UniProtKB/TrEMBL annotation:
EC number(s) on file: 2.5.1.7
Residues that span the membrane, as ranges: none
Positions where 2-(S-cysteinyl)pyruvic acid O-phosphothioketal occurs in the chain: 120
Source organism phylogeny: Bacteria, Thermotogati, Deinococcota, Deinococci, Deinococcales
Record's protein name: UDP-N-acetylglucosamine 1-carboxyvinyltransferase
Pathway: Cell wall biogenesis; peptidoglycan biosynthesis
Binding site residues for phosphoenolpyruvate: 25-26
Any Gene Ontology CC annotation: cytoplasm
Major subcellular location class: cytoplasm
Gene Ontology molecular-function annotations: UDP-N-acetylglucosamine 1-carboxyvinyltransferase activity
Active-site annotation: 120 (proton donor)
Any Gene Ontology biological process: cell division
Species of provenance: Deinococcus cellulosilyticus (strain DSM 18568 / NBRC 106333 / KACC 11606 / 5516J-15)
UniProt binding sites for UDP-N-acetyl-alpha-D-glucosamine: 96, 125-129, 310, 332
Amino acid sequence: MLLDTPITIFGGSHLSGEFKAQPSKNAALPIIVASLLSKEPVVLHGIPRLADIYTILELMTGLGTKYRWLGPNTLELHTPELTSTVAPYALVSKMRASFILMGSLLSRAGHAEVSMPGGCAFGQRPVDQHIKAFRAMGAEVDEEGGNFIATRTDTFNGSYVFEILTVGGTQNAILAAVLGEGTVILDNASIDTDVVDMVRFLNSLGAQIEGVGTNTIVIHGVKELRGGEYTVIPDRIEASTMLIAAVATRSQLTVTNVIPGHLRAVTSKLVEMGAHILELDHNTLSIDARHGELRPVNLTTSEFPGFPTDVQPQMSALLATVPGTSIVMDKVYPERLTHVVELRRMGANIEVPEHTQVIQGKKLHGAPVRAADIRAGAALVVAAMAAEGKSVIDGVRFLNRGYERLTERLQAVGVHIEQNQQLVAAAMD
Ligand SMILES: CC(=O)N[C@H]1[C@@H](OP(=O)(O)OP(=O)(O)OC[C@H]2O[C@@H](n3ccc(=O)[nH]c3=O)[C@H](O)[C@@H]2O)O[C@H](CO)[C@@H](O)[C@@H]1O
Ligand SMILES: C=C(OP(=O)(O)O)C(=O)O
């Protein structure tokens, strides 16, 4: 059970030992959705046990998928037949990734009715590029009562040039074109790690997708996909969060289960700040921020391989503790700022002229705070670890969406963190 009870963090601990990053939430979700394209069983290793994963499994169960856990992070999915092509509001509104069910349903059944998506609420998150790509390949798409209804009347063919780089839009369009007889070309496609991992998974089942990891992706439709087994990549956002936490607490930490190449934008900023990072082997990093002064830095988020927007709030929290002036701009989601007002409760000095955070770093103090989305929650956890005194963080359901057994795993590396035991016991009843 995932508990939505507040967590208490006593600041001032140092992290130590080894932290094993979880498998990637944002890679696992589209791969689970992509499994819908095969009638055969699919076994996926590296599925984190998170609220978002349970949400997508609930959605897929409603479409005819049967699943069972074969191990702590191993999932078998089987969709011999679709029993519905409707993804309802109650579940789709919980998270963004559910919208790419539209591509899978269009591919497998030629019809999809999917509610407008939800997800973290940090400004506008339109889906116009998804819809334009579907239409460009020949789908009919209507909007009715908060739902998109898409139909394939003929084989999908054609091309689309994305007007902006979009992870979900690229995934949705690829999924729609996998089963069929035509060829679809996507230009200005996202090269994000989560797109690449989904394409590798699909190709391992027999899909014919060329150009993975480049801005031009060509999908040759195939009649069917076979079953198979696949391992999802590690979570670069969780690993980044922990590297940042190590710096915020001036600690030494080893983070395992990482792909260092996926983390470069973050690690190079941390090195610029004065942290020492060593690549111990191809999947282990060691970070040491125990000695010397940390320097403020400026950063701007952009699409992969740039600095990830999903790490911006955590990095802003760290910079709020580093003396000097840092400037942070989120070009992907300029309004991703829900952490700011909460960090101010902890004493942070952050001004936000025109969506740019101007951060004057200083020692923070503990306070009661509330997470309003996943990474804002992670930012508050980072700030609370570095602050003096006790912080109580509410809105833990958002952390549960993105971080597996966070309290327990943070305790294991030395963080003084608790979830109220009385409330925990009551929630278990
Ligand atoms: C479940 C999941 O994997 N979510 C991630 C995914 O979200 P998601 O796939 O929704 O993000 P996108 O890459 O699509 O969004 C990038 C930018 O494009 C804009 N846009 C997107 C689609 C569209 O049709 N029109 C449009 O204008 C968005 O508002 C945003 O400004 O990538 C984001 C950017 O790395 C991450 O923050 C999210 O954590
Ligand atoms: C923003 C995120 O998820 P979603 O796109 O589902 O809101 C996230 O994982 O940080």
